[in-house]
């Protein structure tokens, strides 16, 4: 069984300029693919991925209206540089609640959002990324009904059905693995969908701890998914001596690029692969 590595970048939307993604990932995608979590109908909320001129306006902006971005993404997907994943529907709710925790009509939104992205970008969408990494049982049911997998984890407290034998099997498997020493992330097979834990690469993360976890993952033949935001790349970590987000990610990329033991895949390829599964 080989080690699997992938990069997940959240918040590509109508407001994303092609040059922002190119600046962030031109060099990285020469080494391996990046999976982009794309918002189909972005509602302008408080995210720093939304320009200040629109922030908190709650106006809705379909992806296809940014023609330059759509052209760029289509070419990047054709070239194998990028994968498209579904990142919610509007992403932000007017009342500030999390869309796939307290939102309504989720099954329709997942189905329509997926078809929309597939049509606009001429691709296949296999993975759902919940806005703000927050999802509950209703959201899980919606993505499972559409045949999508989850980038992230729900867990028993948030979304796995308590009545499901498979939920408890995965829970006990994880507890057993953690009790045997250093724990490496694994794909979680819940039966009707799979989940892929992400390791955050943000201003709040520790570059040293991420490097340590990557080494532990390689040693244990696990799965490492670096989860980041292109719009945070210039931000410096909050700890003393922490590098920028871009440098944190580059350190991980430099470690795995050319490493024979590591398969660098898209998120969709990882969750479709039965290797590295718990």
Shape: globular
The secondary-structure element order is: EHEEEHEHHEHEHHEEEHEHEH
CATH class: Alpha Beta
What structural class do helix, strand and pairing data support?
Answer: alpha/beta
Q: Count the E strands.
A: 12
Radius of gyration: 18 Å
CATH architecture: Alpha-Beta Barrel
CA(first)-CA(last) distance: 13 Å
The CATH topology, please? 7-stranded beta/alpha barrel
Percentage beta strand: 15-25%
Helix content: 25-40%
How many discrete domains? 1
Q: What is the average of the pLDDT values?
A: 90
Largest sheet: 6 strands, parallel
Helix tally equals 10
Describe the structure.
Helices cover 35% and strands 17% of the residues. With 278 residues, the protein is α/β, with parallel strands linked by helices. The chain has a single domain, classed as 7-stranded beta/alpha barrel, CATH 3.20.110. Strands 1, 2, 5, 10, 11 and 12 form a six-stranded parallel sheet that branches. α4 (106-121) packs across α5. The two termini are 13 Å apart.
In a few lines, what is going on in this structure?
With 278 residues, this protein is α/β, with parallel strands linked by helices. Helix content is 35%, strand content 17%.
